[in-house]
Design brief:
The chain has about 350 residues and is an all-alpha fold. Among the domains are: about 35-185, no CATH class; about 255-325, no CATH class. Helices cover about 70% and strands about 0% of the residues. It has 17 helices and no strands. It has helices at about 5-20, 25-30, 35-50, 55-80, 90-95, 110-115, 120-140, 140-155, 165-185, 190, 195-215, 230-245, 250-255, 255-265, 270-285, 300-320, 320-325. Helix 9 packs parallel to helix 12 (about 230-245) and helix 15 (about 270-285) packs across helix 16. The longest helix has 29 residues, at about 55-80.
């Protein structure tokens, strides 16, 4: 039986990601740290299966994650080569489109698609590390939550030590604590904490991270997301509060359109994530050809452009979403709104 609270959190996280890429306003990232929440959900769901067999669980998670990426690669890599990719990497490096242990390479033409793939790379590594992380967490709860932050601090102080793997290591360390907190949720340890303690810790993380960003401006303005340690702590504050409580979701079933939308986004989450930035980029490219600037009401032209982007994304979901059905060993279907 699906956890509709988790499903709803995942939908909110994806909506925020889409909105931020369409309207890159820094406040959107502060309102809801989507990535931290999504990694926490992933960590919680891993515990559900790991006790039944670590190897099988990791294999099943990768089977659910990778086919949608392969579908994108089958489309995008030939297009990048066709449009001219003079400095394209050797074929062995292109295999990162098959097993993304690092960011798959892309040309300038394909950057709008490849630029979001760091999330899949990070997710892949956290899935692979999950058996170890869960074993460590069960031996030392707090130390396992804090260890990735310590590693992130060390990496920020000595970035050269990580070499070419620095970007991947930074992302894994930045979100590993949220992943482990997801495990703590599934183990029942977050629920065992007193509400006042959770609220206090959450508030301390959020305000402390904001204070650090405020007192350490980048190019004369506050930029929390450019300070990995601060942003990781900020995300932890949200995750602690959001995963301490599990509200009743009976109301969702009573709203069939909303319930169907939540089901659709969850059944097509990887496809939506992979293709949303492509849809937004294409819509922006169509802005002048469609002469949207002629719309007299100020701001309405951008809403029209966003509507076009969402229409293109819907086409991508309808055309390619069935890959997620196959990955989940479900009957392929055009309509993903079915539970």
């Amino acid at each position: 039986m699906r956890d509709r609270y988790f499903d709803t959190l995942r939908v909110l996280a994806i909506i925020r990601v889409v909105l931020f890429h369409a309207f890159p306003i820094a406040t959107l990232e502060l309102i809801f740290p989507s990535m931290g929440v999504m990694f926490a959900l992933g960590g919680s769901l891993m515990v559900k299966s790991l006790d039944r067999g670590a190897v099988r669980t990791v294999r099943n998670r990768l089977r659910r994650l990778l086919p949608a990426l392969w579908a994108m690669g089958v489309i995008l890599v030939p297009l990048m080569l066709h449009h001219g990719w003079p400095d394209h990497p050797s074929w062995p490096r292109l295999l990162l489109w098959v097993v993304p242990i690092a960011d798959p390479p892309s040309s300038e033409f394909g950057y709008s698609a490849a630029g979001v793939l760091w999330y899949l790379v990070t997710y892949l590594w956290l899935v692979l590390l999950s058996p170890l992380l869960l074993a460590l967490y069960r031996r030392a709860h707090l130390a396992t939550v804090l260890a990735p932050l310590a590693g992130l601090v060390a990496l920020s102080m000595f970035p050269v030590a990580a070499g070419g793997a620095g970007w991947v290591a930074q992302n894994v360390l930045a979100y590993a604590s949220c992943w482990v907190l997801g495990m703590a949720h599934r183990e029942g340890h977050l629920k065992a904490l007193r509400p006042a303690v959770v609220l206090g810790l959450g508030a301390a993380c959020v305000t402390g991270a904001l204070a650090w960003a405020w007192t350490h401006p980048i190019e004369n303005h506050m930029d929390l997301t450019s300070i990995p340690v601060a942003y990781a702590i900020y995300a932890i504050g949200f995750v602690l509060v959001l995963m301490r409580w599990t509200p009743r979701m009976d109301w969702l079933a009573r709203s069939r359109p909303l319930d169907g939308f939540v089901s659709m986004v969850n059944n097509r989450a990887v496809t939506v994530y992979l293709w949303h930035n492509v849809a937004i980029t294409v819509a922006v490219a169509l802005f002048d050809p469609l002469k949207l600037w002629r719309i007299p009401t100020q701001g309405l032209e951008y809403l029209a452009d966003f509507t076009i982007a969402m229409g293109l994304l819907a086409v991508a979901v309808l055309a390619l979403g069935w890959v997620e059905d196959l990955a989940a060993r479900r009957r392929p279907r055009i309509s993903p709104a079915l539970p």
